[in-house]
User: What shape does this take?
Amino acid sequence: MKSGSIRIAVGRIRLDLPGAASLKEKRKVVKPLVQRLRDRFGVSAAEVGHQDVWHSAVVAVAAVGSDASELDSLMHDVMRFATRNADAVVVDFGVEVLSVGELHVRAPAEREEATPDVEVIEQMWLGEDKG
Assistant: This one.
C-alpha cells in the first residue's frame, strides 16, 4: 500500500440491558461505557441506535490510521473490553476496515482564494446585507 494511505475502522456493538427500567437507567450504563472506550482506546464512540428503547443500545466505534491490521486489532480489543466491562450483555458486534482512495487536494493558492472574508461570513451568518 502507498505511503499516506487512509484506513477507517468502524465497529458496532449491540447491547442488551435487561435490568434497565427507564431511559435514565440505560444512560447510566451506556454513557460511561462510551466514555471509557474513548479514554482507553482513543477512538470515537457514540450511541447510534435504539436511543428510545430502554432495554437495548447500539454503540458505534471508529478509528483512523494507515495500517489495516493494526486497526482491526484495535477494534477487536475494543470489543473484548466492551464485553468484559459493560454493565450490559453484548449480543452482537461487528468490525469493518475501509480504505479511502486518493483525496482531492487543492493547491494552496486555490484554497486562499476560496476562503471567504470574515466579514462576508459574519454577514451571511447574521443575515445582514451591507451591499
Summary: Strands lie at 6-16, 44-49, 56-65, 89-100. Residues 23-41 form the longest helix (19 residues). The helical segments are 23-41, 68-85, 108-114, 118-126.
